[in-house]
Write a structure and sequence with these properties.
The chain is α/β, with parallel strands linked by helices and 500 residues long. It is built from twelve helices and 20 strands. The structure holds 2-acetamido-2-deoxy-6-O-sulfo-beta-D-galactopyranose (NG6) and calcium ion.
Amino acid sequence: MEKLNKLFLTLLAASPAAAAQTPQTQPNVVFIYADDLGYGDLSCFGAHRISTPNTDRIADEGIRFTNAHAVASTSTPSRFSLLTGIYAFRQEGTGVAQGDAASIIHPDTYTLADMFSQAGYATAAIGKWHLGLGSESGAQDWNGEIDITPADLGFGTHYIMAATADRTPCVFIENGRIADFDPSAPVEVSYRGPFEDVPDYHRTPVTELKLRSSNGHDNAVVNGIGRIGYMKGGGKALWKDENIADSITAHAVEFIREHSDGPFFLYFATNDVHVPRMPHERFRGKSPMGLRGEAILQFDYSVGQILDALEQAGIRDNTIIILTSDNGPVLDDGYADSAAELVGDHSITGGLRGSKYSAFEGGTRIPAVISWPGRITQPSVSGALISQIDLFRSLASIIGAELPEGAAPDSHDLSEVLLGADTTGRDWIVEWSYTISVRTSEWKYIAPNDYPKSLSWCPGIETGTDPAPQLYRLPDEHTNVAPQHPDTVAELQKLLEEIF
Ligand code: NG6
Ligand code: CA
């Protein structure tokens, strides 16, 4: 029934306008989604202690956005909102997903990938998924075919990590099945307890560990690294963390080559720079910031491979590249990888308060760049207020796709902003962390909430929550001026009530 509903919506939306577009004129879209990359982490955003020349190439020939925001300060809700155009707080269970979570996006939800495929695009999801798989949590058929995958959400092809590199299962899923499946080592996954016959982190000799945990990450040990969740088996299908970037990048490049006749939509979600940071050996020693810096270099290398593939295929001019991050950055995220010790004077958030997990700007303000050499010919920097929730309707507008009734209800068309014609952007955007916030160009209102102000399992992280209403006159996020501006507080509270 769910499938029928979606088919019906799709038929309804097959507008003459979309059908009239010929594959040759529609731009390809490559969406590069970094993980936990901060506002201060790229040289095109002012970083001096690291150089990211490939990402800078995109910024240099396109638009660099200095006031762009992820929808949430963690991965799953940000990705959910991006792909559905629905605020994650509207649906239960959109918090950080475990590796055996069921599909968080219902197959009858009209997704960004549905929009592209309906418009005649080839579509692919490659890299980190983290939106659940299958119809029932903990009941996936890991050794057979998984019943709900990105294939049911508009993606023609996928090569993904089910959740994060720090969560089991540590295998890639390719078109519904474990990639390089090893029949001699069937996979079992548990988030309830260890497998008797498989040594977990506490039963593994320290000499066999490549990386020690600083918090959690003490269940299964795969490739000498402790993970969240237990697993058994996998054999030759198990990933080697050092090769994750190369392997997803190779799949992305292959997809580009195979679809160079276009149009295509590539959702390329990197594992970098999420923990465990274990980049390929060739990046070792290349950054004074250690593993976290090397993971940024590896991310930039992947970006370069994508750019080269587009150039070699002769399709760079007619390809829109959007590069951004799913949430703010963090130093110690549960592994003793010396990120905090080696960061030096590099500010991962570019000086913003808070970080990943935070309602402050550091949690959600992220780097964002767009290029489309055939259309955006004047490089610029835009201070327009934008949110990733708006990419859905903006991209629909750019490719001339009509959306079915009810699709992407929270997304606004900001195509003029993305293409540089409008530099104002949204009047307000909404953000989600442990509480809800609304941000305008001048103010940030953080709704009161009893959640702890810091995370016990992530030292020094400010959640930004407070039992009292908080109002900041940006860019200052240190002086709560709610008592002095009751009218503004009331106005922003009313706005949030209307949105809820
Ligand atoms: C936390 C993990 C962290 C990371 C995060 C999700 C611990 C101590 N911390 O629970 O390492 O995996 O979840 O990050 O386990 S996200 O970017 O995918 O949202
Ligand atoms: Ca993330």
